[in-house]
Amino acid sequence: MEDHRLPKFVLYGELTIGCRKRGALKKRYKDSLEQHRSLGHIDCHQWSTLASSRDSWKHTIHDAAASFENARRVSHREKRQGRKNHSLPISPKETFHCAFCDWTCLSCIGLLSHQHACSKRG
After folding, report:
1. Which domain of life, per UniProt (predicted)?
2. pLDDT digits (tens, 9 = 90+) for 13-72
3. Which of 35, 50, 72, 81 has the greatest number of beta carbons closer than 10 A?
4. Are 39 and 68 within 8 A, CB to CB?
5. Helix (H/G/I), strand (E/B), else coil: 97
6. SS3 at position 103
7. Considering the entire predicted model, what is its pTM?
């Protein structure tokens, strides 16, 4: 395909908008497609044959999106559970306890912030 053709320009050209890490290579549209394909667990050798059949491609994309969304929800739930457990380190130097509830803080400023919010609630 010639260089001036639109499909080649889109797939191999550099994105002009967006952000990237400092010193990172400029991202192409093809790179973002590759990243999304790998997140959906679609085999790189299989996608061209799947795309030839509209029904199989639609089914594969639907399954990949559902799988990705479930993994995102599980990850979000695990992160939230980790934040809510609020486990203390093994040997804390000093802990501070809230006067309004049974909350334990590791810093004085954290305790003051918590007590301010806690006093407004009750």
Report:
1. Eukaryota
2. 665 666 667 787 777 777 777 777 777 777 777 777 777 888 888 888 888 888 888 988
3. 50
4. yes
5. strand
6. coil
7. 0.44
